[in-house]
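Sample A.
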Amino acid sequence: MAEDSILRLDATAIDYLIIGLYFVFVLGIGYLAKRAVSNSLDFFLSGRSLPAWVTGLAFISANLGAIEIMGMSANGAQYGMPTVHYFWIGAIPAMLFLGVVMMPFYYGSKVRSVPEFMLRRFGRPAHLVNAISFALAQVLIAGVNLFLLATIVNVLLGWPIWVSVVAAAVIVLSYITLGGLSAAIYNEVLQFFVIVAALLPLTMVGLHKVGGWEGLVDKVTASPGGAEQLSAWPGTELSGFTSSPVLSVIGLVFGLGFVLSFGYWTTNFVEVQRAMASKNMSAARRTPIIGAFPKMFVPFIVIIPGMIAAVAVPELQQFKETGTGSVTYNDALLLLMRDLLPNGMLGLAITGLLASFMAGMAANLSSFNTVMTYDLIERYVIKDRDDDFYLRTGRWVTVGGTIVAIGTAAIAAGYSNLMDYLQQLFSFFNAPLFATFILGMFWKRMTPAAGWIGLVSGTATAVLVFVLAETGVLDLPGQGASFIGAGAAFVVDIVVSVVVSLVTRPKPDSELAGLVYSLTPKADRSEVAGEGDGGWYRKPTLLAGIALAMTIVLNIVFG
């Protein structure tokens, strides 16, 4: 991280007051949510009782952690507009697919987690592989959010970074342990509005400083990377295929837009858990679709400030030109806040950053404790105990996960662009899982043995590509290694799964109803509208069509 003297924000009493009020609200929500927790289903899945607008905003806020806020602004500073692919290509189509096609299977089967769905479809070995890899991924990603949360406290208060890590962890731990998923979700709704209120003014002030949009275009065109940073396609610097625009487009559409994106949004329990907390099937299907609407506009308050920082902040300009200096791309937002915001506004902006990291970390912890308790401890370690035991276990697991995340924060500290680290993790864990899921959901012949063997083979392939890229055997700058790794993991998983399925015994059709598309009656795949769910604007397929059309327009306008 950059030196304190460069990044220190000149906060005053009014800024600290705003931050303090926010923490009072956060802990208050945790305390109030605790009163609604009477059993493990309340703690882990909010008793499946929440309305779609709440779960929809929580769905998007859970993803507005370090990955989005600092990682995407770092990408904006480094690559420019091609970063929008993480939203318009790499998120929204998959979110709509989750709502329209996959949520009926998740919600309709009444599973408590994504690994539990794997258990019913493929049996214990695939379930165990998925549960362990998911739990590992969550504590690694929680470490990223925790590290960045701590850097804000470090910059603001001057505390040593590891004191900041522990302090930040205790705050998040407090409200998750008190109120479980409900506390996380209601705080995520609050955090969504705080984040927008913090970043929108920063974007407007930043654009004013560089002379509006036209001024930003002129300055970016004259900076290293040039005019290519102003159009989303072909995104050669981002993909790593600098000599081939065609390969870059293929890499972005297949590697990011299909494998990494669908792998993340459709199988990642962090996100799916929010939809599972909905009050009925219609609300569960609408959850990711409602989230898609704010998601498509997030780039304008995250990526554009990064681009502004790269041309308006002298230290970052120097880093971009020479690759040396006391700051990195991860510092883009902090530097912009330091230079542009007056007191009061600075407190709100810092609160927005704290909110984003807490939302991200809380999402990781609330899904980690569910999978650890339901899928690993109850299933394999301590079986057949009463519900109170698993409720208490869930709270202790949250404490343990937080302690491990403090350790994994050290790994995150070693990356100058955290998106490189995150995309690498997604290529390991999410890409092969998506291949297994999609094949198993649409091909009834896929066998339990293929479920776990394909998953392990895909993950091993992604790790191999990572090792080859790190050792210089493959020359893949940017995030090319994670795109190639994800694509390779997906293909290998599919091929291995097909081959293994052809030589092993499948489950009988009677055991696959509700788990395989062709064996699930249409009535079970469509929502039963609950009371107050009858309006046209509550129809998942229509809402998804509107969101997709808007996304295509945005791609054309900024392409």
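Sample B, a different protein:
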Amino acid sequence: MVSQRSIFLRSVFGVLLLLVICIPVTAAADPLPSSYQWKQDYITASDGTRLHVDIVRPQGVADATPTPVVLTVSPYRGHLAYLSVPRIDSGPSIDDLNPELFLRAGYTYVIVDLRGFGGSSGCPDFGGPGERSDVATAVEWTASQPWSTGKVGMFGTSYEAWTGMMGLAEKPKGLAAVASFEPVVDPYSYLYMQGVSWRFSLKPVTENGVRPADFAGLEHLLIASTPPRPDDSPEYRANATQLPLECYRQYAADTSNHDPDSAFWRDRDLLPRVRGNTIPLFLGQGFVDYNTRAYRVFDLWNSLGPGDHRAWFGQWGHRTCHAKCGRMGFDEELLAFFDKHVADRDVSVPGPRITVGQFDTRWRSEKQWPPADSVNVPVALRPGRYADRGFLPGHDREYWSVSAPLSQDQHLSGIPTATLHADGPPNATATVEIYDIAPDNTAIPVTRGVAPLAEEETRVRLLAQDWPLAAGHRIGVRVTDVVDEVWARNPSFAEVTVDRASVDLPLLTRPREPDLPGGAPENLVKWRNEKTIMIDPAVLDGATVPMDLPDRTGDR
């Protein structure tokens, strides 16, 4: 008898193959180096869920010899495919983890599949209590093994960084440090910005937004349905081919719910759970990341308790800074961070508390971000109107407010916010974008945000940025309905009239002299090439508004 699961898998694998077509031929599974040994195990969670474990140790180290441990808990590490990239060779799925950095330093590297993924049983939970329990169980089990010193550091990017944040929320025994890069900290704001669906890129075809966030649940279900390898163990094969349909129906419905106040989303917001955390955290976030945007992660960073926390914030995309960020030294800082807090080695962690990559390709150190001298400068915008229609570009969809040419350099560093008093239907949206306009009228978007139109006052919180503005340039603020490549929604096809509006610009009051070596990240070059536009001077005629900007003098 053919099961629903078998039928589902055939259709799923067809979709996965279509996705694979879009991936470069060079994207192949990383083989396990011959100088290391691999074995598998299972953990039984308190609710009976069986979690599959891959264990990688330096060659020649006896099973009973304890080492410090680096742990990644993941939905992406199936033996047959890493995400949608087929894995030709058997072995642990270690793509993009750079495990040799830790293995050469004497660590054991452990990978645990979240429930419903890879070789683990159960249903996917999208950051809910089941997955948080999986993370706590994985940490405590790893810390208790004879081959472990009892201290565990968690490492990952994207969803695998999210599970590190779940570790901070759960505080399991043995968790000594977390390195989390481009993490999800609040899955609702990961998928929706104030109720409006983000569009995610279709890399490597394009990094512009294509896939609406409403389909994210389906995509994760497809990943969860990756079949096993023929050479996997019977238990792995059984778990990977379990009947999932009754588990997944509610999952898909919950992840497409735009209401932030639903119980599903409230339970998954990690900020209240991580507030006051003292476990050392090494955090990374790219300001131009198309996936996990520079948004609530800074709320989490600034809610941490005392501890030896570190951060890299700068102009890169969805990655660690192992490569292509424009600055050397990331691997050395990461390894020293784990050596100090996980391996208890007498080392100093190089670098400042916060490494900041500015949009002008220069780098500096900071003690906090946004910096202490970042002040919100209120700017009154022009009244105006726009058509909430989407799809085709046109000047009827926007209006502008611009500064006079800047008399001195300015530096935007923080999270801008805007307030609009507007008349329009409740299903209309208001988008506010800030631009850096050069003297030749070429302009680059600095940051942007969107919100549904509110009856009395619409508040728009924009993405974070760190952006020097050169003297002679102008600051432009564009009010529009939506940026079609960034958000997906159904337009109201109505006119919106803005009676009054303002934006708070977080500007540094003291100049910065970059004190760290570095250059241009790969994603910053792409941003300049893809996002620079030419503004018709007629659009800006009569659009100048006064801006009382800081007189930036003195040392920070």
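Observation for Sample B: The CA atoms of residues 169 and 274 lie 5 Å apart.
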